[in-house]
Amino acid sequence: MTRVKPTEAIRRAVALIAGHPQVDWVDSPVTDPTSRVTSVDVVFKVNLHSQWKRKSESPSGVRSREVIRFEFPAGYPLYSPVPSLREDFNRNLPHIQPWTMDGRPVPCIYEGDLTELLHRDGLAGIINQTSMWLEKAAIGTLIDPAQGWEPVRRDRLNDVIVADAEFLQCLIDRRGAYRFLKFNYLKSVTQGSGYSIYGQVFSEEVKVNPKSVQQQFFENNQFFDPGLCYGISLALIAWPGKHPSGKPIVCEEYLPETVENIGDLKGRAIKYGCAKELDSGLRWLKQCVSDYPEAGPFPMPVIFLVRRPFNLIGSGSSIEICPYIVEIRLPDLFSDKRADSVRVVTHRHAICRTLLAGMAGMTTTNEHLRWTLVGAGSLGSKIALHLARAGNGPEVIVDRSGMSPHNAARHALVPMPGHMQIFWMDAKARMLSQALRGLNYEVKATVADAVGIAKNGGKTQGAWSKKSQFVVNATASLAVREAFAASESIRPRVVETSLFAGGRLGVITVEGPDCNPSTTDLMVEFYAMLTTEPNLSSIVFDDGTMLRQDVGHGCGSLTMVMSDGRLSLFAAGMAEYLLNSLDKNLPDKSGEIVIGQLSGDGLGVEWRAEGIPPVTVLKIKNGSSWRVHLHQRARSKMRMQTEHWPNAETGGVIMGRLSEVSKVAHIVDVLEAPEDSQHSADEFTLGKNGLLKRFEDYSTPVDWSLYCLGTWHSHLSSGGPSSTDRAMAKAVSLQRLAPSIFLIVTQTGFEAFMADEAYLTTTEVDLSTAAERTRTSSDSTATTIPTYKWS
Amino acid sequence: MTASISFFPVGNGDMTLIKTENGHRILIDMNIRAAADDPDEDTPDVAKKLRERLTRDSHGRLFLDALLVSHPDQDHCKGLKKHFHLGPQDSWSKLHDRILIREIWSSPLVFRRASRKHVLCDDAKAFNSEARRRVRKVRESPWEVTDGDRILILGEDEGGKTDDLRNILVRVDEEFSRVNGQNDRSMRARLLAPLPACDNDDENLLSKNNSSTILRFSFSGGGAGDRCRFLSGGDAEVAIWEKLWDRYCKHADFLSYDILLCPHHCSWHSLSEDSWSELREQGEVSRDALSALSQAREGATIVASSNPIKDDGNDPPCIGAKREYEAIMRKHQIYGSFECVGEQPTVRSTGVMEFEIGTYGSRLKPSLMMASSVVGSGAIGRQALAHGNGKS
Description:
The complex is a heterodimer. By secondary structure, chain A is an alpha+beta fold. Chain A starts with 7 loop residues before the first helix and ends with a strand. By secondary structure, chain B is of the alpha/beta class.
């Protein structure tokens, strides 16, 4: 043989290996002139316990000096070397690959791809992992009960079956039995006469009997690709029962995957304690097909559900799934010697909630946390898909609108090509729920007006239930928000997601327990927060960001123009917030406002959250059906004022907004009384100096979303409104179109009453005291601010 | 918890951390040199390595359950003042974050005054002062002694100085399992030395080295008792080992070990009265001393806590002594090994030599190659894996 000089990289690798503290000796590298694969034998030192040193071998058969062969591929250092053990190494150890290299067992030294390990940790990483593997093999800790049972290595096999592990593990019972499940497969013919199988075992039991069994086997090679066959078959699942003592049969022995034929398979079933069950299943199948004409071969998965002494790594179950594929022929199953071989296959989890949640790093519980999506537009659809891909898809989707071509710009769903595009007109709710079925969710689509559902209680229409954790309102509809707030039925907490300013700002509002603060309270709070953040308020209230976008000739849509990517930046953050809430629950004592702001370079979003305490709900004293929601900001300021004037009445102007749908006056803030106000023990006179400018300064930046609602003043005694107060309310009601609120702070609490022209039609008081009339808003809730005396 | 014994690379000096199966941590000696505290020096930062192996109490203080200073020489107590809290535990400060010593194990040497023949370095003086403070507290208010005040005196002092300390005194030949006032069933320790002084003892026998505390520990492993015996000999020289053999030749089991920390950093003078540099192999090895140190159990390891051992006239460490220890292994078919802390895992890059104790005895933990120590391959050094990495 021609001697091939090792490459520079190999020589360097050999020098590095020789320098490893656990390496005793390195043989000269030998390069195959054809394949250019270089083999290097390395003697590793294995540190044995003192009591094993005399034998120079551990009870598991690992010696104090072990020769490992590293095969460096021609592509090294781009590709990793592969270690293999001596041929007579004990194969009854975990973490050994199911294949060999020229008869040499291959240790599984790393969970992932060795080449990736090479590029992450360097060659030293490969040598370290090999050394650690040998040490663990010696002391018997390749399986660590604290970590869990290591299933037999089955990755990198050619045949794959997909099955819902949880479903299979739930089949097992103490009696021991077998089941037939539906199996569909693709058979890919490879070079020569070989083939590989990719199939799915469905969570669907098939009752096998002589009449129906033939329908269970079918194979068609007229598929898309001549090298590809599609077929249906059965999967046989068998599991062990119990010992005569009544204890379930548990297999504590780790067995390497060495099954090659039916005999081996039956031998393995004996080891796993399910030989009787396997035999019964095969016998019954044979009996059922005995009268059928010759057909086949058909691949049939045989899956053993094996009880292990403790839970599998990363799993809450101690049941290991050990799948194989046998070839059966009708009518004799295995009478043909050609069909005697057994294929060891890789198991892949079927798409299911547990798999998805696990991939997202979520806690995987059996309980599916429920939530409802209202609004299946671009933002809602993306949030729904993000959550569904993390194992927490919505239970119900509510949206009345249909898909339109322009929705393809940002909606999470993608239209079908060609003539199939005609289907891109169905209801968004239906289309999204259909897409989620692909992720194994059963989602109810409610194609209905979200406003009506929100107002009248979704419970009656099945939009949510008692078990629902929350409702996500992604409609960007002010009407839906108001309808939720006005709803008098018991409903889940509403989480509203909104985008503003062409995707420069995103907001999540989360209602508190018992919907206090409510979704409208939170939006009022958001506006109040903006009064101190002019940078944000200027973009939130920039009407230029809402444009009528041409979506057809003579046809437009009022929408926010932004790229899909920018929308996704916010949708992702919102989905992460909800995911976290599903995992750890929503805030339990308050509501929350989460504001996300696009970074200066437009590449990221910075989120910040603020807890919002519940509002104090006050009934209007003078017979009105309105209520006052007194926010903490306003409460605190009033308290500070009254503490500042312990021996005199004080007061000021209350700011907020009115919700006519809910009949709620939101008092979110307070302006201090002007300097010319007069305080005495039995009277407070609100001054007027500079008041008008202060109203404007407050309301203009937030585009009059907040405005003056009325006034407040304190009473030193615990008494409610005096006759003068009531008379004043009536007087004021005539001065403006919108209701005005009068709030009295007493030593025992708050009392609110209203001046509303709609209720009060007579003038019973002298209006001379209501001297000033100030128009403070251009909208229908025009406000008049009286200056008057309180007694 | 897995019991372990860790030997820190401190050159010619001792620094051994014991972790019992019940979780107590006992440090025997220290030699934290200034270079070890200097990040610009290659000397291993043993203080950092020690701190990594300790835990913090509910007040956020790193602590040792017990500290034994085998004898007050620099190479056994250097770094004490800088790295350990001395004084009442109330005066511990977060700023300095020094290690709290819950209990001190001290030889009775602390009762001797420094003299021309009994010279003490600053750290030794600080140790003596702390030990005396604790003894004073025990004498004055024994019921108020808590963590940070406790002390055990290992061996009786001459002149009856320790007679009133019965509750904190361990006499030679006594076995104890108490660590920081608690009984630790996973550890037993037998005090073998310092032996009580005799009238005919010469000055050499009263020297610091020969007053070293010698303990033979027995540790549980994997939940089973007596899985590893550890003989810690301080700097005791040949005369002490001869005396010990004389005393225990009929109870040689008291001297048996699975791990021996060979005395005085693999010094020839622990085995011979002669000078290695002058006589080399011609020097006479004391049969009795060798017998005392030959009680290795099957698979034992003899550890030299020293600089790398070279074939030269140096002592300690002494190549002659190493050969004698290796001969013990061969002669008695021990199937064990001799390991030098200064050569582990490599002479160029030393680390902590750590033995795990399990059901089947002790086992040297393997060393791994750190990326930072690797130069050469085209695929070296760590780098981050990105999302989706690993599949192609």
